[in-house]
Amino acid sequence: MMQMNEPQTCYDIVVIGGGINGVGIANDAVGRGLSVLLCEKDDLASHTSSASSKLIHGGLRYLEHKEFRLVREALAEREVLLAKAPHIIRPMRFIMPHQPHLRPAWLIRTGLFFYDHLGKREKLAGSNLVQFKPETSPLNKDITRGFEYSDCAVDDSRLVILNAIQAREKGANIVTQTRCIAAQRENAVWAVQLENEQGVYQVQAKVLVNAAGPWVAQFIQQDLKLKSPYGIRLVQGSHIIVPKIYEGDKAYIMQNDDQRIVFAIPYLNQYTMIGTTDREYHGDPNQVEITQPEIDYLLKVSNDHFKTQLVINDIVSTFSGVRPLCDDESDNPAAITRDYTLAVSQQHSAEAPLLSVFGGKLTTYRKLAESALEQLKKFFTTMGQPWTAHALLPGAENLVSVEDLISEIQTKIKGIDLPTASRWAHAYGTYVWKFLNYSSSVHELGQSFGHGLYAQEVDYLVDQEWAITSQDILCRRSKLYLEFKQDQVDLLDAYLLELHERRLQKDVA
């Protein structure tokens, strides 16, 4: 990390925000030969990017709002991302129970025809009609038929982290727990002030990229003291997690009387994730939490569809995120465009440009990054060509199949259980050998914190994946947070504190 007494560094691009759009832009830019610094005030993916429905999807419901460009781009991206990161992204079949009073069958069939044919589809199967048998269906007996189609599931926070790792491998400087507290234009560059636990330091940037997500407009107004080119609407989306309410690996997309849809998605083998909601949010994005009306809403939608009837005590966990959507003055939060808007602000040609990202969704992050770099091409005339479409993300190299990798881990690491081998293979792909390489038995992996988390993995996450706290590791790196009891969390916290102190002493020495 840059110390405060180091000479000031001038980067081509400084990116503010370590969510999916920020790391996507940083990764694309550094791969084209630009020098890049990305700063994130908290942990990577710690806000909107880890609070998604964990889908790479075309957005079937966006067709109703005539978002054809967005849907076409998202549909095509499913196949691109599936090829880039098959360890963290997998195809999933979705079942839409038919509710004739909400949408007629012909309308859904038409929508699914577009869905099958708007984007390039090679790996994913097309849609079809399904009939439900009352004795075997998990759905209420009055739901007798529906439609089935394909999309993909993703580990959202790992998608962010893998992009950040790739960016760092290509030469980007990625710093977390580092806030941009101010930036001013000085001649043809930005003077950017950054603050971390060691104090305040300054870097320069030829271009400043504002990918602050829910804080995008606030950053322009408060930290840059400029006028935001667009308004932002914050829309809260919340999910509940319950013990699994049906068997099998398919997701359900449930239509509701308010014309919204809610997903029920298999989650971490033993749970069902139900969401999302859409409500206007006016509070602090750092403090977003599920509300009682949202809980009631999600329970009702699920109970209207499934035989397994849920009550509030069934909820194991909840999470909420704030989607920063570009204000299109829509009356209905569900109808606000999910498309992204990129705004380049520059008063005159000699002035350092600011590129701000409004909106966007997980599925189209790579295309958003390409669009951002296209906008910045005129400032960097020697910049390289687009490269991310066919570049594998870290861990996908030499990956024959996740199943083969799981077998290989179990063969090489004596005594490792299947759930842990499976978690490692899906989270790290072939990068799992970066922390398992010299081990041949579970007894060589260091202190056990429970549920297949060992010191060797924790050390790797701290050294190579910017993890600092137990939350970083349990919620965003490993998804073990639902299994850990408080005493196990305390044990991990104590280990991380000791690790941090050891590293500080080493730095001083």
Automatic annotation (TrEMBL):
Its EC number is 1.1.5.3. InterPro entries: DAO_C (IPR031656), DAO_C_sf (IPR038299), FAD-dep_OxRdtase (IPR006076), FAD/NAD-bd_sf (IPR036188), G3P_DH_FAD-dep (IPR000447). GO terms for biological process: glycerol-3-phosphate catabolic process. It catalyses: a quinone + sn-glycerol 3-phosphate = dihydroxyacetone phosphate + a quinol. Keywords: FAD, Flavoprotein, Oxidoreductase. Its cofactor is FAD. The keyword tRNA-binding does not apply. GO terms for cellular component: glycerol-3-phosphate dehydrogenase (FAD) complex. One of its GO terms (molecular function) is glycerol-3-phosphate dehydrogenase (quinone) activity. Residues 388-494 form the Alpha-glycerophosphate oxidase C-terminal domain. It holds the Pfam family DAO_C. Residues 12-364 form the FAD dependent oxidoreductase domain. The keyword Nucleotide-binding does not apply. Belongs to the FAD-dependent glycerol-3-phosphate dehydrogenase family. NCBIfam families: PRK12266.1, PRK13369.1. This is Glycerol-3-phosphate dehydrogenase. It comes from Acinetobacter nematophilus.
